[in-house]
Specification:
Chain lengths: ~240, ~350
């Protein structure tokens, strides 16, 4: 399986050279702690970690994937090393799956940091683990594909970072991570439902606390559709813009 | 010309040693970027085992042609064949048979030399044991064994270019594309790289090379295509290109004591030739047709002189290039100096 050899090599190289670096690992550890601490200091009441967990997990994935992938791909395109991948005898769809594979894995690893920390302080019995794992995978995939979408739209690394922030910071507040969608002003609520993270965070809320507002049978397919749509749209743009 | 001199001047495989048949063919390739036509109806074929050169100034369409042939760009029209199979719409089918070395080294700064080669081998599906063996062997062949564990970012420009060429051949391609392989590097490294290219060719690798160094094309290439403004204006072997533009035969004789009286004595005996006296030891004879050597030698001997060397003077590739393209070679030189900076 020569394509599989190439696929594995790309994922392993990206994990080694970009994702599993001390600054990124510490980011994955420090960020959830800082966020929980912020809530604790603000409320000055005993922290309901289980209630915060879906939001922190979603945020850890979002911050570990979207901009990381957008930046690494833009960086490789600037240094022209991405051309080396485009010239390899590997179908473009498989190549891009390999290229996003590292970020998806890293996003999933990031997601388990707050879960592991929470497991030491609160009782996580009753959690629907298959739904948690499924949603983590889909949130990581859609967030990564959002990064891919961004990388196709920009030319410079700083543009990739700026464009990523343009998406991810509003998503923190619009996707029900810490402020329920029902508490948002009415005119903002439709916006929540066109963002994939809303569905991912809702699955996590339902699986961890039983507090989801949408049925799982709806959120999973919608998230899947978002992921496939972003990937296919990016692939189309890559063919148009990068293979001239 | 002695074998030894030929070997030192030309680095490529000898014509007689090359296998027959064409490996790559392009028919009427066109590439337009909106209003600009970057490649305008290029048709050519590359023969197995040869070094085929694309010679032209910056912006002539050399890199665009390589991008079309390797699948990094899609032609507006035209067809491409590799090993007799059309791959115009399916470049992935052909990419496994190609090695590509771009004009700028594009390996990974974070990986060391060995890891870079092993990664490139993996992209072509080569298993771990084999890719490690090939990476080690190539580092040795390219004189980079000591630097194998150093990160790519710490390499000099010449070393980077050498490792990029090694990465281009690690999967043992049928044809190697080299885009301006010696541009922007120091003279010693450029010399080493030309030797490596020659060595690869002598081992049987077919090479498609773009350059704007006329002397590089002359030393390395079996056949050369002149490209200007996206159009191929001439294709041929060095001999063919020069013969086509050799409008007259020029023979230079080295003689002891080439006095004015010797030239005067030769003129009436050979009215079809123009006889010049270059200096006191050299005579130059110019003829619209061929020059017969034996009567000439006899006449010189009768004039009391002795010929020590007879040499046919051919036009240089530079002169041919200027005549065909109308581009002054000085412009090419200026461009390459600019590119170096």
């Amino acid at each position: 399986m020569s394509s599989w050899t190439a696929f594995r090599a790309i994922v392993a190289k990206d994990m080694k050279t970009y994702y599993l670096k001390p600054p990124n690992i510490s980011w994955g550890l420090i960020f959830p702690f800082a966020w929980m601490l912020m809530f604790y200091l603000r409320s000055r009441t005993p922290l309901d970690i289980r209630e915060l967990l879906p939001g922190v997990v979603s945020m850890s994935i979002l911050f570990g994937t979207t901009s990381m992938l957008a930046v690494t791909i833009t960086f490789e395109r600037r240094s022209r090393s991405f051309e080396r991948l485009l010239l390899a005898p590997l179908e473009l769809s498989l190549l891009m799956l390999a290229k996003t594979g590292g970020a998806i894995l890293f996003g999933m690893l990031n997601a388990f940091v707050p879960i592991l920390v929470a497991a030491f302080v609160v009782d996580l019995s009753g959690v629907l683990w298959p739904a948690v794992i499924g949603s983590i995978l889909l949130i990581a995939a859609t967030s990564t594909f959002l990064g891919l979408f961004i990388s196709v739209a920009v030319h410079e690394v700083f543009e990739a970072q700026t464009f990523s922030n343009f998406f991810r910071f509003p998503m923190l507040f619009l996707c029900g991570l810490f402020i329920p969608v029902s508490a948002l002003p009415v005119f903002l609520r439709p916006l929540s439902f066109v963002l994939p993270l809303t569905y991912g965070a809702d699955i996590l809320k339902a699986a961890i606390n039983g507090e989801g507002i949408l049925p799982l049978w709806l959120s999973f397919p919608v998230l899947l559709l978002f992921g496939a749509g972003l990937f296919l749209f990016s692939l189309r743009n890559i063919k148009r813009k990068w293979v001239l | 010309m002695s074998d030894q001199r030929e070997k030192s001047m030309f680095l490529r495989l000898k014509d007689a040693e090359r296998p027959a048949g064409e490996i790559l063919r392009a028919d009427n390739l066109v590439k337009r970027f909106e209003a600009v036509t970057a490649v305008d109806g290029a048709s050519f074929s590359v023969h197995r085992g040869e070094i085929f050169g694309f010679l032209g100034p910056n912006g002539a369409g050399k890199t665009t042609t390589i991008n079309l042939l390797t699948g990094l760009a899609r032609p507006t029209s035209g067809t491409m064949y590799l090993e007799g199979r059309e791959y115009t719409d399916h470049p992935k089918r052909a990419q496994g048979l190609m090695g590509i070395v771009p004009d700028e080294s594009n390996l990974y700064d974070e990986l060391d030399g060995f890891q870079n080669l092993a990664f490139c081998a993996a992209l072509y599906g080569i298993d771990k044991t084999e890719r490690e063996a090939r990476s080690g062997a190539l580092l040795e062949q390219f004189g980079l064994k000591q630097a194998g564990k150093r990160p790519f970012r710490a390499y000099s420009k010449g070393m980077k270019r050498k490792l990029t060429i090694a990465a281009g051949i690690i999967h043992r391609p049928k044809i190697l594309f080299l885009d301006e392989p010696t541009t922007g590097i120091d003279v010693a490294s450029a010399r080493q790289i030309r030797s490596l290219i020659g060595e690869l060719n002598r081992r049987g690798t077919t090479v498609f090379l773009t350059t704007h160094y006329i002397e590089e094309a002359e030393r390395l290439c079996h056949r050369i295509a002149f490209i200007v403004d996206g159009r191929l204006v001439r294709i041929g072997s060095l001999e063919e290109l020069m013969k086509e533009h050799q409008q007259e035969t020029v023979l230079e004789l080295a003689v002891h004591q080439a006095g004015a009286e010797l030239a005067d004595a030769l003129r009436p005996r050979f009215p079809g030739y123009t006889v010049h006296r270059s200096d006191e030891h050299h005579l130059r004879l110019v003829s619209a047709g061929s020059i017969e050597l034996l009567p000439l030698l006899k006449a010189v001997a009768e004039g009391g002189a002795e010929v020590t060397e007879a040499r046919l003077i051919r036009p240089t590739l530079e002169e041919v290039f200027v005549r065909v393209t109308g581009i002054e070679s000085g412009l090419m030189r200026q461009e390459r100096e600019g590119k170096k900076k």
